[in-house]
Amino acid sequence: MSDLHNRLVSAEADRPDLTEENVNKGEQLTQMQMIWRRFRRHRAAMVSLVLLLVIVAFAFVGPLVWPYDHTVSRDIAGNLSPSLQHPFGTTKQGNDVFAQTMRGAQQSLKVALVVSIVSTTIGSIWGAIAGYYRGRIDAIMMRIADVFLIIPLIVAVAAISGNVRGGTTWYAVALIICFFSWATIARVVRGVVLSLREQEFIEAARAAGAKVTRIIFRHLLPNAAGPIIVAATLLVALAVLTEASLSFIGFGIQPPDISLGKMVEGARTAAFTRPWLFYPPGVLIVLICLTINFIGDGLRDALDPRQTMVRR
Amino acid sequence: MLVYTARRFAVAIPVLLAASVLVFLMVDLSGDPLSDLRMQQPPPSPETIAAAEARYYLDRSIPERYWLWMTGIGGNGDIGLLQGKFGPSVRGGPFDIGEQLASGISITIRLVSAAIVMALGLAIVSGVISAMRQYSKLDYTLTFIGFLALAMPTFWLGALIREGGLWFNKTTDTSFFYTIGANSARVSNMTGWEYFLDSAGHLVLPTVTLMLTSYAAWSRYQRTSMLEVLNSDYVRLARAKGVRNSVVVRRHALRTALIPLVTVATIGIVGILEGVVIIETIFQWRGLGYFFIEAVKAKDTFALMAWLMLSGTLVVLANLIADVLYGVLDPRIRYE
Asked: Could you tell me which chain B residue has the CA closest to the CA of A2?
């Protein structure tokens, strides 16, 4: 959360004056083109985007071309050191760690995708309604949201997914994470909407006879896109970490399926003796989280209509 | 101020009540504490199951169970949160949830307090240095360390630190770092001083891990707030008056710059609770984290609810303290 606050503050501070208009000398650009141009200028975000695409390809295309899968295979000898055939070696039981890493990354990315869609949608709508109506509705809705934030995320998810009999799958974990995390987005969106609703363009929309749903979906939410995206990327990174931590402490995704957290758990004692088992899953988690955060940073800058194109 | 505190307190109570409903429902609906009993081969007689259901109050409806769990009225005298009883544990009679929870707290509190003190100290020092030498090599190094600690998953960092300790022990052929438990196996014949040294030795690695997870965010906050204050008019005025630099930093700037950190650190308790669960798993401590994980594994619903309510109460209290402290520390804030 701390990071979020910093970025929201810096998002406020970065807004340059409107005098430097962002249309390039008579050149006509559509909204999307403009956003893409601004995004491209953010070097860290571009590098991250490329890196994340590589990871996505690795996770989803990799298993199709790689000869081994994540399960134990009789053809694979146990405890092999890295070689061309098994780039990350093999486990004691005879899993190809390279294939396991692909599968683990796939699980993490799927969780990230579900959380980014479900949590962000529910949270933004909830927050926008609370912020738009203010007063008693706002108070009740936000108290409800508060309740979901009281229990630490990992603990809440572990309590539920560990309790369910027969183990859990990735979508169950993802949905439970959504259930306990949408409130962070709702809080951010409500704050933004509270200030947006007082502005003239909303008043104009209301005067023109726009319905509440139209005001919320066409005017309020698009204008709150920057903070929503920052909050969503932070949340998605958190979801990836939560899923991994959960598998690490033994709840969440269950064997024979594999996740990055589970891999770290299995290779924990090998950190110094057989590092090729321990480092790939951990580094991959760090990479996924970092790239998502940087992309969010870039998107925030690109989507801000007050941003000029001269920066960076 | 008093009125404000009272009002905040009054708001905290319904939130806590709502949290108790959520905790109860999520634990109660997600699992069946008797599933192990039901799965037994050969299947136990219906009377056994009925007796077990009656013992854990599973024969009543959900609202009744919640009421019972909260007040204990109409139970067998072993339940009722408001009476300080947490309910019967599925792990048998001798396992008293309240007692176990208390012993867990007594162990975990060492880890948490040591980590918070260290993280705060380091965050303040490095944040202030970063702000005073903005954009220097030192600033970049500290920023990099902060981001690295922020990006690393706690469990990975913890496992790495533990294995690092083990590796050090092995290569130097000593047992310099303790990597298992909160104390050595035999503590009965130790003197007080030895016991203290033993506890401190076991604390080192887990504390460093837990400390790093909080330190990263806190030092960023400290840097930002210190920068803001250093560039403010009153600090410039102090310098213009000819006050020595060290005095300006200590007396004028740092005091104000510490205010945001108080709030951040108080609210940071959520992250610390999560960290404790993971770190105690890695270092095999038998504190609160262990209690939680064992409760989930045993499907011990009442123990789980007790744990979640404890953590929920801590978080609500922390938010309350943060709000009130903010008003006390920052004279610019006025409450009507």
From this structure: B217
